[in-house]
Amino acid sequence: IFSQVELAPADPILGLTDAFKADVREHKVNLGVGIYKDESGQTPILKSVKFAEEKLLATEKSKSYLGMEGVEAYNRAVQTLLFGAEHEVVSQSRALTAQAPGGTGSLRVAAEFLVRHTDSKKIWISNPTWANHNNIFSTAGLDIAEYGYYQAETHSLDFDAMLADLQSAQAGDLVLLHGCCHNPTGIDLNIAQWQQIADLCLANGLVPLFDFAYQGFGAGVEEDAQGLRIVANTVPELIVANSFSKNFGLYNERIGAVTVVGSNSEQTVNAFSQIKSTIRASYSNPPAHGALIVSTILEDAALKQLWHDELQEMRERIAEMRTLFVASLKSAGVSQDFEFISRQNGMFSFSGLNKDQVNRLKEEFAVYIVGSGRISVAGMTKTNMPVICAAIAKVL
Ligand code: LMR
After folding, report:
1. Of residues 37, 124, 130, 276, which has the active-site annotation?
2. Is the backbone of residue 374 left (phi > 0), alpha (psi -120 to 50) or beta?
3. Which of 17, 170, 295, 382 is the most buried (most CB within 10 A)?
């Protein structure tokens, strides 16, 4: 049977990591996948995570199965991070959360549930968006439509196009929204724009599906949740897929969650029961370690403060690299204006480099960035910056 199987195309992001690993050039730099590096070029384990793991090692009593929805304390902590401590979707029992494997696993569980148990068969995604969105949603069986988001000439948000495209969505259609630090553009909605999108969803019966993978990498943990909270204050139903890969540095623990918010507690319970049956048919129940790390940190005031401090340090280092990147391009002799990069949020800068230039960066200079021109600023250091900027200056 395998004689009929064709070779799969390389993944636009993870395939780059494979190519990078195979590259023997010593000065190579991987700015493809979104992974935080510290100033020494390492992806550190946070101190708060290490302390939590020590505590778990000393106190954990059993490796028995979790329920399909995962660790209860973790799921409660997720809701507090997403909505804040007192939000009405929590106090009115309209939100239920299931731990799931990372952002991708959470989105996939949500999509499988929607396809099988609701009439929502179409999802609107931004153009551009994370390269895996299309893959996840189409594999689950959703139809995909795109809304405008980015104006290439001005390197800014095309909010008019976003509104106009979403006006043509039908009641029951899903709208994928990036909670903060839009991937790949780094351009987010402001408060007034979030409210306009929330109002549009309410008026036309559209259902928001949040991908919230970078909470704390924009302006701060609370600040970055403002868009989500505005939408949750406005619409009756939504779904959130969140991830702790980046903000807890728990990439390989695959720890995220899917949260359903219904218009009343009974409907939420019904929807959640089908989320659980989707999980049962997929991986039965989640692994415990990542969730226990997160809940141990968030339930301990001192560990929680340490995590906030470490997250702030990561956020500030990325911001520093962003400014240095713009300045270093100038010093490398680039006359083109790259100032827009300093206005983008999160791990990525959407550079405007074209496919040819991206390819030359890889082939001639061993600098790996995503084909869309997305560069992981979080992978830049003071040491590799001159190499990166000299290479970009050559391909421009
Ligand atoms: C990215 O966009 O680089 C990350 O979210 C990692 C991934 O899985 O693609």
Report:
1. 130
2. beta
3. 295
CA dist 392 → 162, 322, 330, 395 (Å):
31, 15, 11, 5
Collapsing DSSP states into helix, strand and coil, what is residue 177?
Answer: strand
* CATH architecture of residue range(s) 10-45+315-395: Alpha-Beta Complex (3.90)
Q: What percent of the chain has a predicted confidence (pLDDT) above 90?
A: 99
Q: How far apart are CA 169 and CA 175, in angstroms?
A: 9
The enclosing H or E element of 232 equals helix 226-234
pLDDT at site 135: 97
Q: Are strands 29-30 and 367-368 parallel, antiparallel or unpaired?
A: parallel
Instruction: Give the pLDDT of residue 66.
Output: 98
Question: How much distance in Å is there from the Cα of 37 to the middle of ligand 1?
Answer: 14
The alpha carbon torsion through 195, 219, 351, 334 (nearest 10 deg) reads 130
Q: Give the residue whose CA is nearest to atom 5 of ligand 1.
A: 34
Map tokens 């395939």 to a residue: 15
- For the chain, count helices (H), then strands (E): 14, 13
Q: DSSP for 260-328?
A: EE-SSHHHHHHHHHHHHHHHHHHTSS--SHHHHHHHHHHTSHHHHHHHHHHHHHHHHHHHHHHHHHHHH
Report the pLDDT value the prediction gives residue 86, as an integer from 0 to 100: 85
Question: Could you say which residues of the chain have pLDDT below 70?
Answer: none
Q: Give the length of the chain.
A: 396
Q: Is 183 in the pocket of ligand 1 (CB under 6 A)?
A: yes
In which residue ranges of the chain is CATH 3.40.640.10 found? 65-299
8 Å CB contact between 185 and 218: no
Nearest to 256 by CA among 80, 85, 70: 70
Looking at 246, 276, 307, 362, which residue is catalytic? 246
The burial of 32, by beta-carbon neighbours within 10 Å (0-12 exposed, 13-18 middle, 19 or more buried), is given as: buried
- Which pLDDT score is estimated for 201? 98
Half-sphere exposure of 43 (CA within 13 A, CB side): 15
Angle at 131 between CA 106 and CA 186, to 5 degrees: 90
Q: Could you tell me where in the chain the CATH 3.90.1150.10 domains are found?
A: 10-45+315-395
**Is 18 an annotated catalytic residue?**
no
Contact between 16 and 35 (Cβ < 8 Å): no
